[in-house]
Amino acid sequence: MTTALERWFRPRLPGPGELTPAAVYWTLAAFLVAAFPHLMAMPPALAATVVALIGWRGMAVWRGWRPVPGPVRVVLTLTLLALVVIAFGASWGRRLATALLCVMLAAKLMEMFRVRDLRMVASVCFFLVATQFLFNERLVYLSYLVAGCWLATQALGQIQRIQVNQRRGQDRQASPGASGTSGLLSVQSLRQSGRLLVMALPVALILFFLFPRLAQPLWGLPEEAMDGRTGLSDSMSPGSISELFLDHSPAFRVEFEGPPPPPQMRYWRGPVLWRFDGNTWQRAFFSDQRLSEPPLETEASIRYRMQLEPHERRWLLAMDHPVSSTFPESRITVDHHLISRRPVTTLSQYDVVSTPDALISPVLTDVQRNMALHLPQERNPRTRALAEELRQQYADDQALINAVLRWFNEEPFYYSLSVTPLGRHGADEFLFDLRTGYCEYYASAFAILMRSAGIPARVVTGYQGGFWSESGQYLLVRQSDAHAWNEVWLEGQGWVRVDPTAAVAPDRIREGSRSVVESGRALRDAGWLMNLRNQYDRVQHLWNRWVLGFDAERQQDFLQRLGLPEMTATQIGLLMLAALSLFLLPLTWFLFRVSGQRPLSRAERAWKTVRRRLARLGLHAQPSETPREFAGRICRELDSGERQLVQLAIMFSQLHYGVPSARLLEQFERSAQLFRPLRRGKNRFPRLSFGREL
Amino acid sequence: MAALGRARSAVNQVILGKAEVVDLAFSALLAGGHLLLEDLPGVGKTTLAQAMSLSLGGDWQRIQFTNDMLPADIVGVSIFQQAQEQFEFRPGPIFANVVLADEINRATPRTQSALLEAMAERQVTVDGQTFPLPEPFFVIATQNPLDLVGTYPLPDSQLDRFLLRTSIGYPSATEERRLLVEPDRRDLLSRFEPSLDPGGVSDLMALATDLPVSEPLLDYIQNLIAATRQHGGLKAGLSPRAGLALVRAARAWSLVNGLNYCAPEAVKAVFPSLATHRLETRPESGLDSAAVVEEILGTTRVP
């Protein structure tokens, strides 16, 4: 009993030469690179633990530390498990899963004694580096993925080398190249790993084109409340949008059918906010209800294709006012807001039709009217006073609104990105004292002013403007294009859009957020940077469109273009298997043939170079020729280099069949590199021989 | 080493234009084997043997085999010495460093086997008494392949006792002219100075045994042997003993050629003389073993 327990807990010490430092270091490097993006998203304590474990393993190899005893390992692993659960709490999702994978793999480092363990860790690295695509499908990440795979392949190569050396143990003593840390930084082995990756490329392409795409995914990504990703939120309080102004990452891209609409029409509708508690604007309880009668499609309707970046929220952005969309299980709410049933966790493409001049909500229910007029008690007395004053001057709602907008325009109101916290009477402070702010401040104050004057008003958040890529023919809308504006309800006109920011800073609307940011001096000199970003986004756009957007429909198109009939998913799967075996069988056969042969020694590689140079002149070695026989036969054919060839053959013979000597090997490699034979009678510039044929 | 080179060139001075044969003879010597020369009379078999033995500096004996020869004529006899009242062994001509066994196929099988046994055992047993043969001990046997009347051809199993079998063949036109013009070879032999001594030869033999053989070369040797076993035209392939002999001969050849390692050229050089007399072709294949060996050498890859 005790012996069994002891055996269970006793760490198995690595036998002599079992794990080479090179293999362990490369595996650790592969793991670190694969885990890095996840580490950045993890709670810092967890990330630090993973890094510490990697560091410890590296040091243990370097310094030859003893492995951690079994019971300690068990306790540590359980502690780590508990840490993950505590750190993530109840939010079970992708982040938890990948964090768990990272942490458990790090725990595995403590009991990495055998080749099998090492190989397991290196193999999981392939998966770990690919899981980042669950969170980020950007093009840049592809290169990161390639780098990660390269490292993992390199690690696997080093691990394989351990076994090869074990299999011919006697060689280890004989040749110094096989032992210790050699190959730790060998360009040769890196190149070999790269070659392996390139060899795998056709398989990747076959899988990409022929893996059956399903119209509905078999499994959904687990939902997650928020992933720290910037984007519109479902509430608005001073400062909430300002973070977005500095975020130039794309929010979505639009391709229009026909010419793009003018900038002042580019209002991309997001959450509509009704409830105001004195500080924060929030959506109404009915905001998710389906709109019974969406606007009709008219001649003025605009058709376009959206390419929405994942933002972990349920809303889908659309131009005012959406009529229909092709996004699965989506609906238009009573707020004329397009939303989906599930959070958008992957890059999504969908077509939308919008009618800009639709009349929306001509009738307001009592509930809606109450909510659109509600203000917290005893707040903003000066604003209320102004509203009453205006009401007395203008009986007509439209005239009152115009007066307010004029007031915004004529009084010294400024547009600025600086965030100033507002107190209990926020609208008062802003309208009468501060008078400097951005869309959020204006939209909030305007809505309060309208409600005080008895006009139903609400705040609409979303994006405005965007960058029109002339070369790419698409509109790029960035997070920094986030905007907030108002809608007021007028008798007979329904909800009408009013943008108080446009009255203050018309450029912001005409030219987009960039004009404001640049006038804020922050990025004035970085015009070229923006240009670079726009150029890069074109590539990203193509990547999204052709790679990420290669869905079931595109796949069918692709197959039909190849002249294949329409196929079911099963048939496509069979086609994929056929293509894979068509590629893999010859490769297997080739590898099987090669596997029986010894790997080439350094001398043999150099000799191969020599033979290749001669083969280019049409001088080939017979398989049954010895090196010296070959040289003896060939040197008569040479115009220059015959003496070197004989020398090289003698040196190679000595190195290959005799006792190896490092000095001779170096000399041989150098001479082999310098060897440039010329064939007799075959000059580089052949003499022209006219008349011979005549 | 230098002495070996001198001996080799000295023999080449006598046997004109037959450097390969001389190399093979020295290889057989240094590998501790024996040489069988299969040739017509008058091409220089005896001269070669004589030159070899003279260059070694040891004593040499020539035995002309005839069909009335008895084993005792080779190994020697015990004679009763009346003065001492005991038998005294009179050593036969086989007690020499180099023995030229001329026209071995003329002797009866009984006599032949006495020689072959002595070659294999390197000792002679007469009347229950064992007498070791001198070191080095090297037999050059000759046989005439054409003159078959009244001969007893060596059985195939016995041919295995010879490490190498080769033939000298006719000289080329230039060499033949030199032969005709220059003084008699026997005069040259009479003025022959030994370059080596029996002790030196033993040292060289030890040197040859220690010559390194690399993995690729062993691969090559194995491939060649495997090829003989797989060839359809042969009754049977080479035995493991033949493989061992091939390694020994290749080492010796490399040493003779001044290399400090065993080269594939050595394997190629000794393989025909080593394999041809050990292999027997199927009659229906219409091939002779020399052609098969050539074919195998021409198709086996040199690793």
Task: Report on this structure.
- The complex is a heterodimer of chains A (694) and B (303).
- Chain A is an alpha+beta fold and 694 residues long.
- Chain A has a 6-stranded antiparallel sheet, with helices on one face.
- Chain B is of the alpha/beta class and 303 residues long.
- Helix content of chain B is 47%, strand content 14%.
- In chain B, α2 crosses α11.
- Chain B is globular, with a radius of gyration of 20 Å.
- The A-B interface holds A 598, 623-629, 653-654, 656-659 and B 212, 214-217, 259-265, 268, 297-302.
Domain count of chain A: the total is: 4
Average of per-residue pLDDT values of chain A: 80
Second rung of CATH, namely the architecture of the largest domain in chain B: 3-Layer(aba) Sandwich
CATH superfamily of the largest domain in chain B: P-loop containing nucleotide triphosphate hydrolases
Order of helices and strands of chain B: HHEHEHEEEHEEEHEHHHHHHH
Reading off the top of the CATH hierarchy, the class of the largest domain in chain B is best stated as Alpha Beta
Distance between the termini of chain A: 100 Å
- Output the number of helix runs of chain B: 13
